[in-house]
From TrEMBL:
Name of the protein: SMP-30/gluconolactonase/LRE family protein
Organism, scientific name: Deinococcus oregonensis
Keywords: Hydrolase
Family annotation (SUPFAM superfamilies): Calcium-dependent phosphotriesterase
Domain of life: Bacteria
InterPro entries: 6-blade_b-propeller_TolB-like, SGL, SMP-30/CGR1_Lactonase
One Pfam family it belongs to: SGL
Residue intervals of the SMP-30/Gluconolactonase/LRE-like region domain: 34-297
């Protein structure tokens, strides 16, 4: 398999400390249509989505890549919960699903206010076990990434689902197309990307957003009808901040059209790891948590870095 050239763009000297000297960008697999949602499992496997292929793929060191689930009902983002179960956003099922310990998939939530969700896109699990996810309409308006359908929610929201109580609550309103999301290491800040620019100028919405928003989280719960207020964190270019992760120091590692861009907690761009394909999403993994796995268009890549991810 042809290997890419490793190119690092240094915008700030502090980026050096986050990179492992001599590390190389390595292509592990190619053959997907559009890769997304990688999640690293405790047994050393890496599962990720090939959304238009309607399948999940699995990679493990020294073994050929295989299909993990087909059909996957167009699963997109993945994360592990506290019990090590995969929690996934399913465009096709218009809900959030979880793989139980017996291997079966269970629909956790698929509606709000008595109406189907749009097409949940990306997901994180908080320390208290609550599941936060974004709900843009991509699986409805893109027939190659879902079963289609009519949007029945009044907007595109960010939700918090409590699996213990079975309750679903809107946490963020008013975004045009919420996509990726992640918490700061102390869970005092929620970051959410808005990728409305992917369909701007069409019949969907005029906005051309390609930015990350930050939401400061209150100490207590929000009152009914209340929602978090945003502040602009960073505009990502070229392309869009589709999926992203946060490291233990609070730095944001985000996808873009040119590679993985890295920002400090105060929004300063440190630099970029160039990738020869458009990046959809990424995650930290490996035995020490310092391997960055990158799902980029048709291929899966990895590079060793010098910092661990804050979450899976």
């Amino acid at each position: 398999m042809e290997q890419p050239e490793t190119k690092i763009e240094l915008a700030d000297e502090r980026f050096h400390a986050l990179l492992r000297p001599g590390a190389r960008l390595e292509r592990l697999y190619t053959g997907a249509v559009w890769g997304e949602g990688p999640v690293y499992l405790p047994d050393g496997r890496l599962v990720w989505s090939d959304i238009p292929g309607n399948r999940l793929l699995v990679w493990q060191e020294g073994r050929p890549v295989e299909e993990y689930l087909k059909p996957s009902h167009f699963q997109n983002g993945h994360v592990l919960d506290q019990e090590g179960r995969i929690v996934a956003c399913s465009h096709g099922q218009r809900g959030v699903v979880r793989q139980e310990h017996d291997g079966q998939w269970k629909l956790l939530v698929g509606e709000y206010g008595g109406q189907p969700l749009n097409s949940p896109n990306d997901v994180v699990v908080a320390k208290d076990g609550s599941i936060w996810f974004t709900d843009p309409p991509y699986g409805l308006i893109q027939p190659h990434e879902g079963y289609g359908g009519t949007q029945q929610q009044p907007g595109q929201q960010v939700y918090r689902y409590d699996p213990e109580r079975g309750t679903l609550k809107v946490m963020v309103r008013g975004m045009v197309c919420p996509n990726g999301l992640a918490f700061s290491p102390d869970e005092r800040v929620l970051y959410v990307s808005d990728t409305a620019g992917t369909h701007s100028g069409a019949q969907y919405w005029p906005e051309t957003h390609h930015h990350l928003l930050a939401f400061d989280l209150p100490d207590g719960d929000l009152a009914d009808g209340e929602a978090l207020s945003p502040r602009l964190f960073a505009e990502v270019s070229p392309g869009f901040p589709d999926g992203f992760r946060v490291d233990i120091l609070g730095n944001i590692w985000t996808s873009s059209a040119s590679g993985v861009q890295v920002y400090t907690p105060d929004g300063l761009r440190l630099g970029e790891i160039a990738v020869p394909e458009i990046v959809g999403n990424l995650t930290f993994g490996g035995p020490d948590g310092c391997t960055l796995f990158i799902a980029a268009s048709t291929s899966l890549y990895r590079i060793e870095v010098a910092v661990r991810g804050a979450t899976a």
